[in-house]
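# step 3/5: fold
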Amino acid sequence: MTLQTVRGQVNAEQAGVILEHEHVLVGFVEEGRLSPDDYDRDEVVSRIAPLLLQLKAAGCNTMVDWAFRNRLPC
């Protein structure tokens, strides 16, 4: 079985543990829509990167983040 990812297809072994509905960046703003004006990108990266590296060390190679589902063509 293969999965299509933004980086191409991967097999189940490459995918490893999958977190299927995560939000790396969540904001409680009107209509639930977050724009880049609502946060500082560098601050987000500095706070979340260490946590994502911990997930990877624990065997999680794949994460599905639905934060931008309304911005991508289906």
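# step 4/5: annotate
The first helix runs from residue 12 to 15.
# step 5/5: archive (pending)
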